[in-house]
Design a protein that fits this description.
Layout (H helix, E strand, L loop, with lengths): L9 E6 L2 H17 L2 E6 L2 H9 L6 E5 L6 E2 L7 E2 L3 H7 L6 E6 H4 L2 H8 L3 E7 L3 H14 L6 E6 L7 H6 L2 E6 L5 H8 L3 E5 H6 L3 H6 L9 E6 L4 H9 L4 E4 L3 H23 L9 H18 L3 E8 L2 H8 L1 H17 L6 E6 L2 E7 L3 H16 L3 E4 L2 E3 L3 E8 L5 H17 L5 E3 L14
Parallel strand pairs: 1-2, 1-3, 3-6, 6-7, 8-9, 8-10, 10-11, 11-12, 18-19
Antiparallel strand pairs: 4-5, 13-15, 13-18, 14-15, 16-17
Length: about 450
C-alpha cells in the first residue's frame, strides 16, 4: 500500500508519555483517519522539537502536559526528572502555536491557564477527554486555520464604517450598497455571510429584513445586523421584532471590523461542519449545491462556460467485498487527493456520496472538461495499491460530462452528466463520456 502519510491531508504531532501513547494510539489513529488526518506520536522532547521545526505551518502540534512529570530527558542521559512548564515552553519553537492537554486539576489553576494562553497557545483541553471528542475538536481547529475561501459582507448605508484593508487581509469581500429596494437582489446574487444595514435605511423601509428572510432560498446561517448610531431601546426592540439577528452600536471603524471578523470566523466554522465531508475534507452534497449555484451565477455574469463532471469508481462494491471497507476508504481517500491535485484555482470538487465525486471546471467547455477529467482518470489508474503482501492492484473510474451554458441550472448539469456517466458505464467503464444527444435524463442508474 502507498505510504500512509500521503493518504491524509492533515498531520498532528503529539507529545505525550509512553503509557498514554501505548493505551491510546490505535483508537486515536482510527478516529483521526476518519477525519482525514494522521497523528505522529512522540515521547521524547528533542524528537518532538525537531519534528515541529521541520513541519508545515498547516500541521497541528499537541502537548500532553503530563510530560512535565517523570519524563525521560535525553539531555540528562535518560535520567528521570521533573520538567517545569517554563522549561517546556522555552524549548518549543516560537513560530508555531500549540494545543495543550491538561488534567482537570491543572485546569482549575487560573495562573497556569494564563501562562499557556500567553505562550503560543492555539487551544487547550482538559482531561479526561474521550478520543472521539479530542479528534473532533482537532478537526475543527484544522478547519479554523485552513480556509482559503472568500467570505462576503454586504453593507447598506451611505458611508462605509469598516476597515476595508483589514477585511481584505482576512479574505473578506465588502460590497457597498445604497439602494434599499435592490438589496434583496444583491443578497440573492452574492450570497453574503453578513448583511449590515444602517438604521436610517431600516427606518425608511421597515420591510427590508422580512423581504430578505422570507425568500425560500434564504441561507439560515446568514446574519443580518442593524448598525445603530446611538443607543435607542425602543428602536432596537422594534428592529429585533422585524427580524434582525443583532443590533450593533456604531464605534471605531477598526473595532467594528474586528467584531465582524470574529463573527465571520464562527460562520466559517459552522459552515465547514455542515458543508464538508469529514472523511475527505471535500464539499459534500450540501456544500456543492451552494457553491455550484454561486459559480453558475458568476459564469452567467462574466460570460464564462463551465464543465460539470460526475465520476464513479468502477466496481467499488467488489473492492469493499474483496478487501474490506477500510481498504475501500483508502481508495476513496487516494482518489480525493489525486483529484484535488489537478484542480484549478476556481474549480470545485465534491465527494457527492459514497464512491461518487463531482468536479466543476471554471472557464472550461465540455471538450476541455473531458480532457481534464480524462487526465484525472489516467492519474488515478496509475496509482498502485498493495492489497496484500506481494499483491498489487490498480483501479479505475468512469465519468460523464455536461456543460454550462448548454445546461442552465445545477440540477440540469447533474442530470445530463449523470446520463453521460451511465453511458460510460454501459460502454465498458474506465472512460469519460460527453453529454452528446443524450435522451432526457430519466435514465435508469447502473446496476452492480
Amino acid at each position: 500500500m502507498a505510504e500512509a502519510g500521503l493518504l491524509f491531508k492533515n498531520q498532528v504531532k503529539l507529545l505525550a508519555q509512553t503509557f498514554f501513547i501505548k493505551d491510546n494510539k490505535k483508537e486515536l489513529l482510527l478516529c483521526a483517519h476518519k477525519y482525514d488526518f494522521d497523528i505522529h506520536f512522540f515521547d521524547q522532547m528533542s524528537d518532538f522539537v525537531t519534528a515541529v521545526e521541520n513541519a508545515s505551518d498547516q500541521d497541528l502540534f499537541v502537548i500532553d502536559l503530563d510530560v512535565l512529570y517523570n519524563m525521560q530527558n535525553d539531555m540528562q542521559q535518560q535520567r528521570r526528572q521533573t520538567m517545569f512548564l517554563s522549561d517546556l515552553l522555552q524549548r518549543l519553537p516560537a513560530h508555531h502555536n500549540y494545543v495543550y492537554l491538561q488534567t482537570v486539576r491543572q485546569g482549575e489553576r487560573f495562573l497556569l491557564q494564563q501562562k499557556l494562553v500567553e505562550s503560543n497557545c492555539l487551544a487547550y483541553a482538559e482531561k479526561p477527554i474521550s478520543n472521539e471528542v479530542l479528534v473532533d475538536k482537532l478537526f475543527n481547529l484544522f478547519g479554523r486555520h485552513k480556509r482559503g475561501e472568500t467570505n462576503v459582507i454586504v453593507y447598506l448605508g451611505e458611508i462605509v464604517p469598516l476597515n476595508t484593508q483589514l477585511l481584505a487581509e482576512h479574505s473578506v469581500q465588502l460590497l457597498h450598497s445604497q439602494d434599499a429596494r435592490s438589496l434583496h437582489v444583491k443578497v440573492k446574487e452574492m450570497q453574503p455571510d453578513i448583511v449590515m444595514i444602517d438604521q436610517s435605511h431600516f427606518l425608511n423601509t421597515e420591510a427590508l429584513v422580512r423581504v430578505l428572510k422570507k425568500n425560500i432560498e434564504f441561507d439560515q446561517s446568514r446574519e443580518i445586523i442593524m448598525l445603530q448610531q446611538e443607543a435607542n431601546t425602543t428602536l432596537a426592540r422594534h428592529a429585533l421584532d422585524s427580524g434582525f439577528d443583532e443590533i450593533i452600536q456604531k464605534t471605531d471603524n477598526d473595532v467594528l471590523t474586528r467584531l465582524l471578523l470574529n463573527r465571520i470566523d464562527k460562520i466559517r466554522a459552522s459552515k465547514d461542519l455542515i458543508s464538508r465531508d469529514r472523511a475527505t475534507g471535500l464539499l459534500n452534497k450540501i456544500g456543492l449545491q451552494k457553491k455550484a449555484q454561486e459559480l453558475i451565477r458568476r459564469a452567467n455574469r462574466e460570460g464564462k462556460c463551465l464543465a460539470y463532471g460526475i465520476l464513479d469508481i468502477d466496481k467499488f462494491k467488489l473492492i469493499n467485498d474483496t478487501w474490506g471497507h477500510y481498504f475501500g476508504d483508502i481508495v476513496i481517500k487516494r482518489l480525493s487527493l489525486v483529484l484535488s491535485g489537478l484542480l484549478g484555482e476556481h474549480d470545485l470538487l465534491s465527494r457527492f456520496g459514497g464512491e461518487e465525486f463531482v468536479v466543476i471546471f471554471w472557464d472550461c467547455d465540455r471538450e476541455q472538461g473531458k480532457q481534464k477529467l480524462d487526465a484525472m482518470r489516467e492519474a488515478f489508474n496509475n496509482i498502485v495499491f498493495e492489497t496484500r503482501p506481494g499483491e498489487n492492484k490498480q483501479f479505475t473510474f468512469s465519468g460523464g460530462m455536461s456543460d454550462f451554458p448548454s445546461c442552465k441550472t445545477e440540477n440540469d448539469l447533474f442530470l445530463q452528466a449523470d446520463a453521460a456517466l451511465y453511458q460510460a458505464k454501459q460502454a465498458g467503464r474506465n472512460q469519460v463520456c460527453l453529454m452528446l444527444d443524450l435522451p432526457e435524463a430519466g435514465h435508469k442508474r447502473w446496476q452492480y
